[in-house]
């Protein structure tokens, strides 16, 4: 009776570890200290831009610098998004997944597209010991339309980090 | 064989229950990260009143007449004689709460009356050196300056123009 029980338990675990997703999960369970968290410290701010007949683009780089094409920008309100990524466990490496695009909506209902998201570090990060924390910043490109209506435009986006 | 089935079922359930907790530890998402931008209108400036130094007597020696940004007139070596005098004033429109720079003539401006001339310099503005547009999208600007009157300056009405530029900071 005991023999049979042990044999069956083994078979059941074997069954689960053969699944691709489930295999990783079992490993994590064996090392419960492997965790990752991300905290938003600052949002993405393109600042103020003067409406122009032909429109243009505004890029905020991950280092927070703003570049305008075809537009005049005013000072203030410019920031890359900033996050704190914290990892615990043996592996400090993580993957960063950025959105393809998002939409900002103005007070009057007009829209602008934000795309070309980029992060620093790009692609993968390394929250090294002993701190096991890393600051990750994200920039993107704003598309301002021809004679874009005046107003304040707001939107949201999501950033995901995965342990490698 | 009956027991085999029972035990297998129990073990499988235990494993499935464990997996969601383990999965949540390996991925994290920063949701609803705010992104903002503000589109502001172009900045405009329109003259409301020109700069006027009023009437004065021709002095024996050179002197000056100053109109400040509040429109008050003072003189040095020149006798004032009424007339219309006021600071130049301007209406500005632009983006709410945005600041702008003010550029006044750096060099002297010449007023002429036929072939006779006087110069105006030491331009000053209120606000200075930058202004802020109100929440309603407007601002006002006043400009004063100093008129240089020559010794025995020829009688006449003297006119000239100058430029004031405002630009977003």
Question: Your description of this structure?
Answer:
The complex is a heterodimer of chains A (164) and B (169). With 164 residues, chain A is α+β, with helices and mostly antiparallel strands. Chain A is built from two helices and twelve strands, in the order ααββββββββββββ. Chain A is elongated, with a radius of gyration of 23 Å. The model of chain A is unreliable at 1-30 (pLDDT under 50). Helix content of chain B is 14%, strand content 47%. Chain B is built from one helix and 13 strands, in the order αβββββββββββββ. Chain B is rod-shaped and about 90 Å long. Chains A and B meet through α1, α2, β1, β2 and β5 of A and α1 and β1 of B.
Global mean pLDDT of chain A? 84
Q: H/E element string of chain A?
A: HHEEEEEEEEEEEE
Number of helices of chain B: 1
Biggest interface pair, residues each?
A-B, 67 and 37 residues
Find the structural class of chain A using helix and strand composition: alpha+beta
Strand content of chain A: over 45%
Helix fraction bin of chain A: 10-25%
Number of helices of chain A: 2
What's the oligomerization state?
Answer: heterodimer
Strand content bin of chain B: over 45%
Number of strands of chain B: 13
What characterizes the major β-sheet of chain A? 10 strands, antiparallel
SS-based structural class of chain B? mainly beta
Please bin the fraction of helical residues of chain B. Answer: 10-25%
Rg measurement of chain B, Å: 36 Å
Shape type of chain B = rod-shaped
Taken from the alpha-carbon principal axes, the silhouette of chain A is elongated
Instruction: Provide mean pLDDT of chain B, rounded.
Output: 89
Estimated radius of gyration of chain A: 23 Å
Weakly predicted, low-confidence segments of chain B:
1-24
